[in-house]
Every structure is written in structure tokens, then in C-alpha cells.
What we know:
- The chain contains 7 helices and no strands.
- It has one domain (2-146).
- The termini are far apart.
- By secondary structure, it is mainly alpha-helical.
Amino acid sequence: MHSTTSSNLKIKILHIALKLFLGFMLISGGMDKFKKPIPAPNKMIEQVKAGEEVAPNTEVLMIKNFFFGLKQSNYFWQFLGFAELLAGALVLSQIFWMIGAFIALPITLNIFLFHLFLETDETGELLMTMAMLLINIWFIISSYEKWKGIVIDKSAVQFKATAQ
């Protein structure tokens, strides 16, 4: 019995540590969206028109184009930052962590895919973002029993015999 209690305690501590890691990573990424002055939506277009070099190679150009697209809308970059801050704060709250994990899932998936397809040479960042995604998926899977009632409507699959 003692080893089971000790094992459960270790799992709880690990779960909290992973929440702290994911929450702080999301908050850090969200804050970064607001730190630097956001360039005008047409800055890259103006650079190209002026004949200025936008990127030293194709890989960097692809990354710059990706971020340019997010920033060009003049709202999405900030919206993404807000979503990261919200998800991170909810995960860190230890009370609303499941909601935070669901909000964070498309964000962590996109961050991982960005590094997988656009920054393939950055192995450390790829592994870090893969860890974030896997932790996020683990949170959702491990809490399945708690949230399944929200998304699975058992009454929709029950057939009632009608009286004749």
C-alpha cells in the first residue's frame, strides 16, 4: 500500500511539474508577441518594392513569409499571443488546467508543425516543441474520464421502444 501511495504522489508531482513547464512556455510565447514593436502590415511588401533583401536564403524567407502573414492581418499575431497567455494561465491555475489544455492543443500542434516543416535544422527547438505537444496530448488523454461526459451524449445513442 505504501508503494502505491508513493507512486501516486510521484505521478501527481510529475503532473504538476509538466503543467508548470507547459504553462510557462505558453505564457512566455504569448508575452513575446507583445514585446517587440509589431512592424506595419506592409513592411515586407515595401522592402521588396524597394529592392531590399528580405532574407538571406529560401528557408529564412519561408519563415519570414509565415510570420508576415500572421502579422499582416493586423490582429492575428496579437490574438495568438492572447490565446497563448490565456491557455498558459489556465494550465498554471491547477484548477482550470483542462480547459487550458484544450485551448493550447491547436497552438502547440501549430508550434510543433512550424518547427518540423520550417525550422528543420533547429533540433533543440523541434524537440522542445514536440515535448510541449506530447505533454498537452497527455493532459487531454489522462483527463478523458473527466471530460468525456461533455462531448459524448449517451442519450443520442439510446433507442427507446415506442408504446403502440
